[in-house]
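Worked example (supplementary).
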Amino acid sequence: MQSLKSLIAGLALAVAAALPGHADPIVVSSKIDTEGNLLGNIILQVLQSHDLPVTNKVSLGATPILRKAIAGGEIDIYPEYTGNAGFFFNRADDPVWKDAAKGYDTAKKLDYDANKIVWLAPAPANNTWAIALLDSVASANKLKSLDDFGKWVSSGGKVKLAGSSEFVNSAAALPAFQKAYGFTLKPDQLLVLSGGDTSATIKAAAEQTDGVNAAMVYGTDGAIGAAGLVVLEDDKAVQPVYAPAPIVRESVLKAHPEIADALKPVFSSLDLKTLQTLNGRIQVNGESAKDVAADYLKSKGLVKK
Amino acid sequence: MTLLGEAFPSRGSASAAEFVGQRVDKLGVVLAALAAVGLLFQPFATLKANRIVSGKALGVFDALPGAIAAPLVALILAAVLLALLRTRPTMRLAVGASALVGVLVVIGFVPAHLVSLDNPLARVAPASGFWILVFAFTILITDPIAKLNLGPSARVAALAAAAMIVGGILMSGLWSGLSVMKEYATHADSFWQDGARHVELSLSSLALAVLVGLPLGIACQRAPTLRDLALPVLSIIQTIPSIAMFGLMMAPLGLLAARFPLLGQFGIRGIGAAPAMIALFLYSLLPVVANVVVGLQQISAGVVEAARGMGMTERQRLLRVELPLAAPFVLTGVRVVLVQNIGLVTVAALIGGGGFGEFVFQGLGQSATDLVLLGAVPTIALAFVAAILMDALVEFIAGRRR
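After joint prediction of all chains, the assembly is encoded as:
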């Protein structure tokens, strides 16, 4: 038995030694989606250009994995959306998230108090839930805003919307739109895609799968234009603001305070149009996120080298 | 004599049905039907306006210039006719191989025919007809290989030849216009890194499972109580869905790393390779332990008795008699684990473990089928190669003992 114990102990050590070690570098991470890939690479390259030691953990997994990882100190910095803080702290119904500045301040305070995580300056973009319609349908019926859309649907406009189950069911999403703009989509006017990815909903609308002609999208989606869709304006500001901001563990920021100033000009340059274009280059053109990030930073003179 | 006469009537009275029975290869009929469906009723390639929309399906003559399409169709027809007739296995092997290589080479000419240089966004991908043809001719190759009853080394040589042909086409750049290869071009730097990680995770968890599973299996065979306890537990572990298992590993490992920073330094953390490896290790235990137990149990009591009679100690009996006799079973378990792990590693990408799953999940997120394929096809190829190599190894060891 003793020998078995020492064998196991030895094995554990051998395994530990075989796995990649981790020392001082700043662990840069991001979600596994298109924009996560882009913003993760941007943060990584900016920090590198400031000669900071980094470890690349970009496109690590879904949001819950990232939250667990940063709370456990396994990653140090990743881009998160202000509106998501509402879900992290069970305050999704709070109207504060619908205001860009107040939402950011609230997210910053809550996450710092609870987890000692610092929210750095956000990008002036809003990657929030929106409804996009086939261009042909929108122009034929002169629909520009969700207000037009609501009236059109209520008066019998033929619409079928593809969305994730979260979008269809979460009180802040489709139900909020329906309430504010006075329309109701019946179950047969919805195509619920459980995976919940906007590229799937956009594809469904672009190809009119099952008669779908409208799709749940995020504001900065790169595929909207290429798929022949137009985003309907949320003129009553129903949706919470989802502005991407780098969030970093306080201890890491204290060790490398220059991170904040390095990322600030970069994120403030990332407006909605820019993010749409950059995301589109990755998603539609198939360029690598790393190259798109490098190309953008270089063209804007945002990296030193 | 009369019996034989009844079974094989004289040639003079041979009917059409008997001709079919004697001259036509049954598998050949199936393959011919498959190839006909693939060639006539299914698209050979698809053309997409960009990476994420669905494509336009094109038949052979739409996808290729006539000067290439016509010879391809002729080659396929000739191969199908020869496959229909009963011929020697070597002949069928040669026919299947040349038709397969023909189809594989010709698909490389499709992009240049369909896409002009001023349209860099358009994507050309092989479609269902192509895959059906590849499948049909692969069967036409593997069937005679099975009939020829090749030894392990000949099978490995055949695998090497196939790898060289595919590798040659890849290196030649013939396929570089195809959509999957365009994905490869953008992800080339991380492709080999993730590939190495994939193999590393599959093999290291297997090694750990053998190191733990072998003694555990021996102990289980000696002590029925332990066996009745261990095997059900391992079976239950086997039923935990892989995504859940990888998720379950995160919390305890994360706590451990937070509590003992030294472990974190060694990479024992809630995300990354460590939880993936431990999950794979747990999945691997059942096949290894179960096969060790079965391997030891099938040894006849007489053999063990004889060894005891020769004055061997328990340790000598185990090492010189029982384990060598159980080896083919143990190796079969190892083969199962290896192929299973190569598939399961894909899910590790969801917890930052890396591997080809990285492309699968990124591709799913972007609705980019080509990127999904860039992760899926190498995974399947790896599992296929591992299975052939392990089979050959098992047979080689079993054969040498006989």
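Two points are worth noting when inspecting this output. The longest strand of chain A covers residues 54-61. The CA atoms of residues 29 and 93 of chain A lie 28 Å apart.
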